[in-house]
Design goal:
Elements (H helix, E strand, L loop, with lengths): L4 H11 L11 H21 L4 H24 L1 H11 L4
């Protein structure tokens, strides 16, 4: 499987608010996890162009990440700018 518990812990440790492996609820850690999943699905769709169910799942993930980014932008702009810079996302 592409997303093992070790990979998730590493993502949460490097991107969460508390910088711990158990910080799974902060918007930063969820955005980082969604970004990892989006990158994986994008690579899958480059090979399998007609996989429309995966394409639908990818669009839903992008929407979830966008909503979390909008939430961070409205509540704490400094955390929003930090996660955008850290993950190299464009707005």
């Amino acid at each position: 499987m592409y997303l093992t518990s070790e990979i998730k812990k590493e993502i949460f440790k490097t991107n969460g608010t508390a910088k711990s492996a158990t910080d799974t609820g902060s918007p930063e850690s969820q955005i980082a996890l969604f970004s990892h999943r989006i990158a994986h699905l994008t690579e899958h769709l480059k090979v399998n162009k007609k996989d429309y169910s995966t394409q639908l799942g990818l669009m839903k993930l992008v929407g979830k990440r966008r909503r979390l980014l909008n939430y961070l932008q409205k509540t704490e702009i400094s955390r929003y700018r930090a996660i955008i810079a850290q993950l190299n996302l464009r707005k």
